[in-house]
Design a protein that fits this description.
Number of helices: 12
InterPro entries: RVT-Znf
Largest sheet: none
Radius of gyration: 18 Å
Number of strands: 0
Helix content: 55-70%
Organism: Buddleja alternifolia
Distance between the termini: 18 Å
Pfam families: zf-RVT
Protein name: Reverse transcriptase zinc-binding domain-containing protein
Strand content: under 5%
Order of helices and strands: HHHHHHHHHHHH
Amino acid sequence: MQMREIAILNLVGSTSSLHPEEWNFIWRAKVLNKIRVFGWKLCKDIMPTTSNLRRRRCNVNEECPCCKDSVESTEHAMLSCSFARQVWALSHLPWRILSDCSGSSKGWIRRVHSELAGEQFDLFLVLCWAVWSSRNKALWENQLLNSAQTVAFASSYLDSFIRAIPQRLSTWSGNRVAYKFASLVSSFPVGIVVLPESIAALMCVDVASFD
């Protein structure tokens, strides 16, 4: 297990604050559950950035492993780093909204949510996740950072997820109960549910198809 993976267990702490209604703007996003949880971690500023790791007394170099120009804080990794700025420029999301990062990480993401339409906010969350994933691949797998590929991957990933949902639901097009049940379950960020085989297959949209 990598140092960042180990450290996140300490950074997260209790999960008792996962579910309050104040987080509905994250949990209602039409994205994979793992990306919703990633968005929650961003809001809580508990991502294992070098800045957070040093605060937890981990012996790491605080400089950004990608640009080497600044301390790797959450704000830097998601917004200020040259790689992140290239991604946002190519995304065509309004920089005027994204760049207002004064205050907390949660405040920043809430402001973005209040300004962007639903589909744009979904793309914003997926892009944040893709930026972080690309940074980790560059750090741990020596893969070159490519902002165009990151944007293309995030857009394709979200599009595939959205298109997969009605395809799976069409299996139960005549079953309103199954549809409503699937909608209810999809609103929960985490958990284990024992389902009849026919309905459980629907949830594979959020597991097997996109992991």
